[in-house]
Amino acid sequence: MIGISAAKVLAENGVEDVVILEASDRIGGRIRKEDFGGFAVELGAGWIVGVGGKESNPVWELADKSGLRTCFSDYSNARYNIYDRSGKIFPSGLAADSYKKAVDSAIQELRNQEASCGADDVCKMIPEPPSTPKTPIELAIDFILHDFEMAEVEPISTYIDYGEREFLVADERGYEFLLYKMAETFLSTSEGKILDSRLKLNQVVRELQHSRNGVTVTTEDGHVYEANYVILSVSIGVLQSDLISYKPPLPRWKMDAIEKCDVMVYTKIFLKFPYKFWPCGPGKEFFIYAHERRGYYTFWQHMENAYPGSNILVVTLTNGESKRVESQSDKETMKEAMEVLRDMFGPDIPNATDILVPRWWSNRFQRGSYSNYPIISNHQVVHNMKAPVGRIFFTGEHTSEKFSGYVHGAYLAGIDTSKALLEEMRKDSDTKSENQNFMLEPLLALTGSLTLTQADAVSSIHKCDIPRRFFFSGIPEAIL
């Protein structure tokens, strides 16, 4: 999303010499669909979050313009569909009380952190909150609040600006269709495929050698590209890995900012069944499994609203559980998931006929799902994260202070970075023009007998155009 939106802005401003270097064999990055059980499922970004507010979400506008099929998602009823290990649903009153207790505790913890952290972002030791979740239902609700829904408990900019409604993408063309619709406005396409030579697939960037004169980009297969500027749109996980080396190395202030941002791993596991055995109907799309181990196959969703007759369930794992499952076989994962489902719905339910387990953490081009800044974060960290280093401009959902972690954050970050680069180009062009004029004055004094105007002299010696060579390194990104 970022690479495409950034390149589109440059193209619209007359910058023609642009090359997009894409590490994989497809565009989309963390927006990725896959055929499963005869349906297109979204392995990465799946929802358009923030609809119905005072401002219009730009990604929702793109979806509306493209005719993308979506379904409204309402998580509020999930807390009333919490199963214990014996298959009983917790009483609604107990669930509501537990949810309120968890929210109040989270808000109090935030206030404690705000009170204990100074302007230098150094926090004192905070004692464990008195209401730390301990029972299975408390652990399950804590997981929903902090892992599935959001990392923050303070008001979320997305909801304030764009609204609190969320829509699941349920289109056979996939969420990635939005990227192709954007791309075809400035790249050559045919039948849903990009055929433009400015997009180069399977180009894994391994080294950026930068100086005040430009950047040399070296890929894994030995290709070397030279550019005036580079926009680096890799994920925060890749920035924290050793995939790309820099010569000279990035300065300490940049590395400190990169290291301070956590990476969230978010795994949606898809299971296909011969028939549905779970409750359907209003308020039943989402259900929860309460276990003594936090985050153990906790949050479930059936896909009947998105794809009627699909007989597909999705369970969401995060962070430690995600990494654990990625390291084991799909057969082991299916066994664990089936044991959980039989706890909830009894021993006679059918076995799953197929399973799909994304591995975002193991993917060296992603190394996670999206950025997760601390609840209390110094604004300088985000500023340093997106600040350029010489002629390398950094962008990504992790550079969006208001919308990090979201697809619209990625989209807007690409636009903002390109605008900053265009401004830098203009400054660079003005500086070169001033230097040329300064050098011409002695020359004009010596050629007074010639009938050359200063403008003619400038034109005859060298015409300084705005630099027009750029490369986008990495995978165009998307957020959950």
Automatic annotation (TrEMBL):
GO terms for biological process: polyamine catabolic process. Gene3D superfamilies: 3.90.660.10, FAD/NAD(P)-binding domain (3.50.50.60). Its cofactor is FAD. It comes from the Eukaryota. Keywords: FAD, Flavoprotein, Oxidoreductase. Pathway: Amine and polyamine degradation; spermine degradation. One of its GO terms (molecular function) is polyamine oxidase activity. Residues 3-94, 162-421 form the Amine oxidase domain. Coiled coil: none annotated. The keyword Oxidoreductase applies. Belongs to the flavin monoamine oxidase family. PANTHER family: FLAVIN MONOAMINE OXIDASE (PTHR10742), POLYAMINE OXIDASE 1 (PTHR10742:SF368). This is Amine oxidase domain-containing protein.
